[in-house]
Amino acid sequence: MAGNKKILAFEISGMVFIIVLGSLLHFTYEMSGGSPIVGIFSAINESVWEHMKLAFWPSLFWVIIEFLPLKKVGNNFFTAKALGTYLMVFMIPLIFYSYTSFTGESIFAIDIASFIVAIIVGQILSYKLLTFRLLPRIGEGIAILLLILLGASFVIFTFYPPQLPIFQAPSEG
């Protein structure tokens, strides 16, 4: 039971860390003068894709921070963190495109709220999987691979975005 409290404390702390760092990363690209290195981790425009990065990179950094403290008290570490991260990242466009299909435009307050909700839900899933029974070990390797693939996608599509709406800032139409 003490292990579950430790995991819960880390996952709640992770919510705060990811929300705060993700919010800061929204502005760091512009503040850096357009540094390509900073652009890997920050939003380089107002596209939905770039906002997904604001959940991914802070979540990945949090995985690194909590790995050593939680690796012996939690189960399914990489599976939990990968699925939680994927849920965070993909809730952002799901919520955005769902509500804008009704409103016809983005609403700043809903965008902020959806980011926060996505982080909270992702961390809750992570907690549930960390405290769940041990899953087959192969899942851990697949989870690591999925995190690497998503990270690589964010790097590649930052510099070479496909001509799809999710990659275009609203002014780019």
Describe this structure in words.
It is a single chain. With 173 residues, this protein is mainly α. The protein has one domain (2-160). It has six helices and no strands. It has helices at residues 2-31, 36-41, 48-70, 77-103, 108-130, 138-159. The longest helix has 30 residues, at 2-31. The chain is globular. The model has no long low-confidence stretch (mean pLDDT 95).
Average pLDDT value? 95
Order of secondary-structure elements: HHHHHH
Please bin the fraction of helical residues: over 70%
Largest sheet: none
Strand content: under 5%
Shape: globular
Contiguous low-pLDDT stretches (5 residues minimum) are: none
Report the structural category.
Answer: mainly alpha
Distance between the termini: 52 Å
Tally the beta strands: 0
| Rg over C-alpha atoms, rounded to the nearest angstrom | 16 Å
Domain tally? 1
Number of helices: 6
Question: What is shown here, in short?
Answer:
The chain has 173 residues and is mainly alpha-helical. Helix content is 76%, strand content 0%.
Key phrases:
mainly alpha, globular, 173 residues
SSE arrangement:
Blueprint: H1 2-31, H2 36-41, H3 48-70, H4 77-103, H5 108-130, H6 138-159
Helix pairs in contact: 1-3, 1-5, 3-4, 3-6, 4-5, 4-6
